[in-house]
Amino acid sequence: MKLLEYIEKIPDNDSPNVFGLHQNADLTFRKKKSLAMINTLLDTQPKDAGGGSGKSREEEVKDNVMKDLLPQLPANFDLIDVLDKLKTLRGPKGLGEMGKLDKIPLNNFLL
To answer: What is the number of domains present in the chain?
Structure first.
């Protein structure tokens, strides 16, 4: 049973260090794989034979993505209201005074 437990703990992907490569080698590999997958998806999309809308395939994909994602976005916020709310927040005990945006790390992050 210990052998099966050991096998399950082995990572699915080998670290580039195992092969004497830098960590960026893994990043480059994953980026190339992602681009290849996206290109394959774009190449396998159905192509309309007529219509003559004048839009390229990339423009149609962009329009479809915008149509799907824009309704999911939250409403715009008013920066002045956000700044006023940040001035009233307190950070962790001993880290800063209320209203001092540059003294409280959480406020800097939220801003």
So the answer is: 2
